[in-house]
UniProtKB/TrEMBL annotation:
Organism: Chryseobacterium camelliae
Residues annotated as domain Peptidase S9 prolyl oligopeptidase catalytic: 452-666
Domain of life: Bacteria
Protein name (record): Dipeptidyl aminopeptidase/acylaminoacyl peptidase
InterPro entries linked: 6-blade_b-propeller_TolB-like, AB_hydrolase_fold, Peptidase_S9_cat
UniProt keywords, alphabetically: Aminopeptidase, Hydrolase, Protease
Protein biosynthesis found in the keyword field: no
Any one GO molecular-function label of the UniProt entry: aminopeptidase activity
Tagged with keyword Protease: yes
Length: 667
């Protein structure tokens, strides 16, 4: 099955939300280190989480002993990450026939963010430094030799990695020549030899999306004109000229998913569009004629934007379509995948099933099975013998029968909008007891949504008897463009109303103790935590702000260079600070200017190298609150960025947060 890798798609990264790496000298640490709370503060917090609990934090947040299994293209090897005694996750390669295991990639100080197969003898992996998101691409042989940094430049990041099958080449887009814009390079992953494929010259109207076919030919590109208009150019295969195909407002969707190599028409492609519909749908499109050939799939309630194509062995036929509805849904299309899907669903029932890797002949499929109560199990499915074999249980210590139910919910907002979400209910709530509630607004905020499935956070909270509410408030993705657009310029206002209405809904169902409600979130969710404590101070008992925005003005000012082309979009999503009326609103919904309204306990957490939400956002709110005599526990990790990736840091954070909730729920 055809798998391409997208590294931090820049438009999504920017509109859904550079510091130096941590140094040993205090004077060089990012932010104000004097604000950070002492170890004793967190030890005291952790001590509040006491009880005869069956599961501890490590059971949910220690990384699996092994994970991220992949099959080599020739089917002879199995790669995977395995954790050592120090918590490092190295990549190993196992010869399936002989059983011989070799360490291929060693994880040192920085996390291996992603990895995969380049060909049958070579792997790629990506890393940044301390969470700063300056991503580099590396390659190594399966025995660990011939290690190369394929993008050996300071201060760069990537927004695309495209492996060209059956060649020694990979295409990346990186901001090497100008930090604001990205250009494509073809790199020999054996030698490191590099060729620039196209120039991105106009900073004001940069190319922000390059479209390559399976052979690595540039077939089109998208231009973001003046930050607000998307122009798609497509190459005429006869003349070689790139012609304007579509010009759309940035809020609309029209993009090429993949070319239909199964067709004799080389101008045929699978396209995601909502130009004449509310929900995004997949169509087969003739790019030369600029016309829809036929609709492939649409859903009346949810956006659809994902497909999987077979490889060369089955002539690139369409295998299946997938989308996030109430749960993750898969629509089998090809005869091959219909048979696979029928077999797997008959064996695993209503659990979610995902094919995550396969060899080039599609004989060995690696399948992950999960649910709201199952973290995940890897199986090998042999398509010749039609048999499944358990490969690895990611979290064997977490028993399904002990896990909490994640229930889809739907309610009306105060102004009549239908809002969807999820509530994870501990057994006590199902037995009629009113339990404490953690309200967990998602990040982004736009284009992001909460999904059904196993969530270590909500399961950890349930193990302590707490319910968790996740509301897909207006501006969330997946429910159509009008729902998303209805939340623009409503951040901190109607988006918060929807969260509050979700809390009222949960209380009305009899699940929740209305006097024990906390709010916690990361990124925009951290911002929503602060705004929740300000906007409805009597609703919440306490709050945890995790890498959250506290000041919209300084948030805008701290954008990394490669976000700047998207600033006009961000103005339309958040607020236009050049407009006096909107600037006034932005100040009203910037928590740092409303700290006198914060009356309930707050815990602030930050990664020092965060390029999305600068450490200054957390420093500001802590400093301002302490200046008025309001004590705030403040945790900063100097080897982390936008959220904690390292096991030790995550465990310390969750232990401290559980203690913080226990302390305040039991006052």
């Amino acid at each position: 099955m055809n798998i391409n890798t997208k590294i931090f798609g820049i438009t999504t990264l920017v509109i859904s939300s550079i510091m130096m790496n941590a140094q040993t000298q205090t004077s060089k640490l990012p932010g104000d280190p004097t604000l950070v709370s002492t170890k004793a503060t967190f030890d005291k917090l952790m001590a509040y989480d006491k009880g005869n609990y069956k599961y501890k934090v490590e059971d949910y947040f220690a990384r699996p002993k092994a994970s991220q299994f992949r099959v080599s293209p020739d089917g002879q090897y199995l790669s995977y990450k395995e954790k050592d005694k120090d918590g490092k996750n190295h990549v190993y390669v196992k010869n399936i026939k002989t059983g011989t295991v070799t360490k291929a990639i060693e994880e040192k100080d920085d996390l291996i963010r992603s990895y995969g197969w380049l060909d049958k003898k070579r792997l790629f992996f990506t890393q940044d430094r301390g969470g700063n998101e300056n991503i580099h691409l590396y390659a190594a042989d399966i025995d660990g030799k011939n290690l190369k940094d394929l993008t050996p430049f300071e201060g760069i990041t990537l927004n695309m990695v495209h492996v060209i099958k059956d060649t020694p080449f990979v295409i990346v887009a990186m901001n090497k020549n100008n930090k604001q814009i990205f250009e494509p390079y073809k790199i020999n992953f054996n030698t490191g030899e590099m060729t620039q494929l196209y120039e991105n010259k106009d900073v004001n109207s940069p190319i922000d999306n390059y479209i390559f076919d399976k052979d690595g030919n540039l077939r089109g590109y998208g231009v973001l004109e003046n930050g607000l208009t998307t122009k798609l150019y497509y190459k005429d295969l006869q003349t070689g000229k790139f012609n304007l195909l579509k010009s759309t407002d940035w809020k609309d969707t029209f993009y090429i998913l993949d070319f239909n190599e199964n067709s004799g028409n080389k101008d045929e492609a699978y396209v995601v569009t909502n130009l004449d519909s509310d929900k995004s749908r997949i169509v087969l499109y003739d790019l030369k004629k600029n016309a829809v050939i036929k609709e492939v799939y649409s859903n009346p309630d949810f956006d659809v934007s994902s497909i999987s194509l077979a490889g060369k062995n089955r002539k690139y036929e369409l295998d299946y379509i997938s989308y996030n509805g109430i749960k993750n849904e898969t629509i089998p299309v090809s005869p091959f995948y219909k048979e696979v899907h029928a077999k797997l669903t008959s064996e695993f029932g209503d659990k979610q099933i995902s094919v995550v890797s396969s060899d080039d002949k599609d004989q060995q499929l690696l399948v992950v099975v999960d649910s709201d109560k199952l973290y995940g199990k890897y199986y090998i499915y042999d398509t010749k013998t039609k048999t499944t074999k358990l490969l690895f249980d990611l979290m064997p210590q977490l028993k399904e029968e002990d896990m909490a139910e994640m229930r889809p919910i739907e309610f009306k907002s105060r102004d009549g909008v239908t809002i969807h979400g999820y509530i994870t209910l501990p057994k006590e709530a199902l037995q009629g007891k009113k339990v404490p509630l953690i309200v967990n607004p998602h990040g982004g905020p736009q284009g992001i949504r909460d999904d059904w499935g196993f969530n270590p956070e909500t399961q950890l909270f349930a193990s302590r008897g707490y319910a968790t509410l996740q509301v897909n408030f207006r501006i969330s993705g997946g429910y159509g463009k009008e729902f998303q657009k209805s939340g623009y310029k409503q951040i901190g206002r109607k988006a918060m109303d929807d969260v509050e209405d979700g809390v009222k809904y949960a209380i009305a169902q009899g699940w929740v103790d209305k006097d024990k409600i906390a709010i916690y979130g990361g990124s925009h969710g951290g911002y929503a935590t602060l705004m929740g404590l300000i906007k409805t101070p009597d609703l919440y008992t306490c709050g945890v702000d995790y890498v959250g925005v506290s000041n919209i003005f300084t948030f805008f000012d701290s954008f990394p260079e490669y976000w700047k082309p998207y600033k006009e979009m961000v103005k339309q999503i958040w607020y236009d600070l050049d407009n006096p009326e909107e600037a006034k609103i932005a100040k009203e919904v910037s928590p740092v200017y409303q700290i006198d309204k914060i009356k309930k306990p707050l815990f602030v957490v930050q990664g020092a190298n965060d390029p999305r939400v600068n450490i200054n956002e957390s420093d500001q709110i802590v400093k301002a609150l302490r200046a008025k005599g309001f004590e705030v526990p403040y945790m900063v990790k100097y080897d982390e960025g936008h959220g904690f990736g390292k096991e030790k840091n995550r465990i310390e954070f969750y232990k401290s947060m559980l203690g913080f909730f226990a302390e305040n729920f039991n006052k």
